[in-house]
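Q: What structure does this chain adopt?
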Amino acid sequence: MAIATNDVSRISALVRAGINNGESIHAMLERFYRACVDVHREGPKYNPKGFTPDDYMVGLCVLRLGGARLAEILHRALGLPGLTTLRKHSVIRPLRASPAMPTITEIEANIDAYTTGEQEPSGAPRMVHRVLMLDEIALEKRPRWDNKTNKILGACREHSHAVSLEFCDLDDAEAFFASLDANKVHLASEATVAALGSLARDPQMYNPRPVCISGTCKTETGEQHSHFLRKLLEATDNRKTHGNIIYRTTCVASDGEAKRGLALALEFMKYQLSVASPIYPLLQPLEFMNLLVGADDITPDKDYRHVFKALRSLLMRRMGINVLGFEIVPAIVKQHLHDIGLSPERLHSLLNPNDRQDVDLTYGLLKEIWTLPDAPPNAAPTYARARTALQLFGRLAYHLLSLREQLTHLSTAAHLLLALFTMDGAGTNFMANQTFNAFFCVAKVKIDISDEEFFLILLGTDRLEKLYGLIRTAVGTDSNFDILQLAGRASNLTEVSVILALKPEWDRGPRRLKLPAVINERGDVSSKADHISPASWIGDVHVAGLIPGANEHFDRCSQIAKFDILSPFGELLVGKPDAESAFEIDPELLVEGTTDPVDDDSTSNPAHPNSLPQSGDILDDGIEDFDDVLAIHDAENTKHSPHIVVDGKQITVLPRLSTDRTKRVAGIAAFSNSSKPHHDQIAFDNNAAPSLRIGNPIATLVLCEGELFLAIAQVNTIILGTQPMDSILLDLLPDRGTKISYQILQLISTDSVDDSSGQYDWKWSLRFESKSIHDVSGRLIFPLNPTVSNRIPGKPTYMFSSNVLVTLGADIQSQLPVSSSLPQVNRSETFPYRHEGKACFHVEPETGLGNGRGEFGQGADTAFECTKCYPSVSISKKNYQRVLEHNGAHILYDDMLPATVEPCGLCLRPFPMCNFVFQKTTGTTSARQIDWTRSTCLNPLKFQMAAAMKSSENSPCTNHLIQCPLQTAARQCVTFRHRSLFGKPL
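A:
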């Protein structure tokens, strides 16, 4: 049969069977003859037995990756070992998930499970460094019985001590479920997976080896988690020898989970590096290096990819990022990237908060920023200052890339982070607290194995995340799993890793992991930049001859006592969590959108992709888990309805297809299906009308310690209703839905050098107050067009006159709207503005307007103030006919009102800025009234709807309420339509 079918592999099995039986050549030929005769006779065929180790390993790979069905097919078709034989020759023992808080014995057993299957290395003793990686993966909340340990799996380790997990009879199961019902114990929503990974070039050897799988309900404290870490380290230390290899755990890596961050700080940042430590002479000369370590000089490690992602998240925070005192908010970033040619689609893709884990988008956004050219020579001063701040932030992003260059870039990035974190007391207004670990790891390699290579990219938890991807795709029909299934899949994939370590020629990794360059010839960031392997790195990464050193010197910082990279203000940041607001994403970006990156081939950027901005004045002033991707077509292009009927209720298909059971039950789609970007826009298409834009200077009034002061500021964001805007017509500033966020400019006195004419005595110092002011009513904002001075090339600034500023403050105060709530600001060294130590531009409020709490004009609102007239026209609301008459004149004859809109007859705002909501009246009649509490009209007037809907000879305008066709029983929207409007020429 083997000869007839050209089955060469089975002929070798025939020969091997003869050799194993000690047969002669003649006996083997007789065996071949019997096999040939067997082809033509009926009945059972001759099937020689005997498999090589390679046969077993191939069969195990097929079984673990393809499943029992595929293994059985190949057994019958190709003669590979059968299922029973394969399981007897398994390379490693199955990994065990911990039913409760993991014990040292359980962790050691999992380490032994894969080390016993590997070939025991021989030769001279040598040391190998490794990383202990920890990360969470989502689980299906489901209890399971483990027949190997007779334990109930699936409970959280935090509370599993409250119930017996031994399953001896039905009473044990009932007691377990009773504890679940009583909330004494919880089903684990996630599993903490701890894995060991060697720092080696061999792609088969640095694969992660899981050593602990433990369920969690995410309620443990940092102290409790540090106890868990101590058990892991003790178990790994007990199993640090394998053959002639001595393993040393150099660091513990995490993806940045908050509770673990505290635990890492408590456990591995509690001792000062001993002077007797071999790595002390290498690290002590590093200026500002913090030398806190744990036992055996172990340090915590933050996955560097999450550092990159954090940089992108900084640019999407509502509070922005403070660079050189300038708060860079998302609107500023979009403005500058749009000005260099990026399309709205590309901007939406780069700043899409729905996918904060996409490293491709992160690299793309940071690359666009670090290649920003200098601002145009005629740029406004605030615009030029924003460009300088963005360029400096881009320089930081660039420096986060032979090993010496990597450390040089890291050193530069660390010093830039330190400077920007401390500049103007920015702190977490710049970015959240970070730590650095690379220099410690390099020093340990240089001391322990000085002739070895060190790959910075092997730090962090990236290898564990890749294992998660394989686990989720190991069974194509089910990407979800409970904790028992997780342990089984992790065991199978670990066994495959061990086999491929023995037979590396069999393996060909996923093609997307091969990275020729982070940035290609066109300057685009490669989509493969997320998972870089040592095989992709072509630089010199040998540590021999490398002497870490610091070339940066900050004289001002060195004067601060106890100043270092973890004590930027002289006080250690360890154990001090960041404020929750430090991670709040700008709500303007929280819109449904595509998570796919959009290439913008039309972008024209003159800067070389690998070059840094060449502005020499930058520092002159001091300086969710992996999910199945479902093929969802746009509803507009499909012939099938996106809805189904379940239990008589119509629901969308997307939640039913969700791979997340929680979302599926809640009716939430697995993925957003919107492919249209959220475009910022101008309120009306009227380019001839004056408007306020982001970055423009403004004047406003603020309260400081109960007193009213004039403030000059820069616009950071503009919101109209809920819509973010690039600009807004000045006529819409008084609208109740207009909100402006700004940052106050620091003004200083000029001298004869600044202005020889003596016309101006104040100028902008190119600095800002540290805190931005958010969501200020547009009625308090007054645009400015100050004089620009270009005395210093490349540093334009604004010039002001005291007479103009005093007049401006009085004018703003006189126009202060009624019922205005003014923002409160804290006093600083530069605000209120000062001259010779005295506060300037104090505004005296009119009698009865101020109450010391920031609220003005709290009297009865009985007068209508027309926002279209200047000077303002005041009409008593008691004569509402005069209000309608006045507004009707604007509608008919005011050229500043676009003819394409239909303004409200009460407040002159168009729909949807102004809308009305009906409410039913009580009583027997079915008449309706306007619900003024939910309506958004700025000028509510009481009137009889029945009378208003009737047209007469003296009152032809009906102001008829047109009911919205999309009404619901609870809420019915209406808008005013003016019949007289249609008589106005378009």
